[in-house]
Write a structure and sequence with these properties.
Distance between the termini: 16 Å
Number of helices: 10
Largest sheet: 8 strands, mixed
CATH architecture of the largest domain: Alpha-Beta Complex
Radius of gyration: 25 Å
Number of domains: 2
Structural class: alpha/beta
Shape: elongated
Order of helices and strands: EHEHEHEHEHEHHEHHHE
CATH topology of the largest domain: Spore Coat Polysaccharide Biosynthesis Protein SpsA, Chain A
Strand content: 15-25%
Length: about 325
């Protein structure tokens, strides 16, 4: 469909962010005003099963502003699937992804949009600094991206999140990718379209608490590795081979002690320790294989990625 001005859809996943929404809405509407001469801007909020006042706030916002669209999911499906729901319902020629906690400044979308129109399909936010984050989180994030790139065939930019602008053809490609265990910041570079970084300073959370405690961060990191690399399976094979070599070396050493020296062969303690160590290695390797099998099991069910219960201001 030909448009006089391009349509920019800003997708915002929301889960229990009632204290951020008023400030977020004000800043987004100001962004829309600044870009009014260059693009039509709409906002697509995805309520990911919030159980605070977010649902009521979003309903009121959609009633007051026709440019605000709302997709409500039946329960909390998780951040990546909420973003997916937003992309599936986005109608824009360009789509921006931004979280509701205001750590990624909505104002940056204006300059990112300008860069995108210079001939880039993807403009991704790359963090220069992270306010309000612990040294452990900054270090773990830095290590995570380096390890991930060493394991994957697709290079993923370091110090990035989901904050980015993508073109319509990138969006259409992502819509074809229906895997359940999603890592969108890896799926976008996988498409191979022309990309550029947009350096920015990340703010601290505006209000509320993080939705990614340590447990979820570790789970997210594991999902990223398993979604984009089969190298853990190769590592498991190498561990098995190494265990066999150690076993052969140990057996030859024991045989040497028995036949050519007077040193007594270590007894039951050494045997028990060896059994415990190698049993642990076996369980670990079976667990690695099990993670991949579990993902095959989940994908084979063919269930929808999310369930929508209500929409507001969307075209029928």
């Amino acid at each position: 469909m030909l448009r006089e001005k391009p349509l920019l859809t800003v997708v915002v996943p929301v889960f229990n962010e009632e204290h951020c929404l008023a400030a977020l809405a004000a800043r987004l509407l100001a962004l829309r005003e600044r870009l009014s001469g260059e693009a039509n801007v709409e906002f697509l909020f995805v309520d990911d099963g919030s159980h605070d006042g977010s649902a009521a706030a979003l309903t009121s916002l959609a009633a007051a502003h026709p440019c605000v669209k709302l997709v409500r999911l039946s329960r909390n499906f998780g951040h990546q699937l909420a973003v997916t729901a937003g992309m599936d319902h986005a109608e824009g020629d360009w789509v921006a992804l931004v979280d509701a906690d205001l750590q990624d400044p909505p104002e940056a979308i204006e300059e990112m949009f300008h860069r995108a129109r210079e001939g880039y399909d993807v403009v991704y936010g790359q963090r220069r600094s992270r306010k309000g984050e612990t040294a452990f989180k900054r270090l773990s994030a830095a290590v995570f991206y380096r390890v991930l790139n060493s394991l994957c065939d697709v290079e993923m930019p370091a110090d990035t999140g989901d904050f980015r602008i993508i073109s319509r053809r990138v969006l259409d490609t992502l819509r074809l990718m229906r895997e359940r265990h999603r890592f969108i910041r890896g799926m976008v570079p996988w498409t191979g379209f022309r990309s550029i970084a947009f350096p920015y300073d990340r703010d601290q959370r505006y209000a509320g608490s993080t939705k990614y405690p340590l447990r979820k961060m570790l789970q997210f990191a594991l999902n990223a590795v398993l979604s984009f690399s089969a190298k853990p399976l190769a590592v498991a094979t190498y561990f098995g081979l190494l265990a066999v070599l150690f076993g052969i070396a140990g057996a030859l050493y024991m045989l040497y002690l028995k036949l050519f020296t007077g040193i007594p062969v270590p007894g039951v303690t050494a045997v028990l320790v060896t059994i415990v160590i190698f049993s642990g290695i076996q369980i670990l390797l079976v667990g690695v294989v099990g993670q991949y099998v579990a993902r095959i099991f989940e994908e084979s069910k063919g269930r929808p990625l999310y369930v929508v219960t209500e929409t507001r201001n969307l075209q029928p």
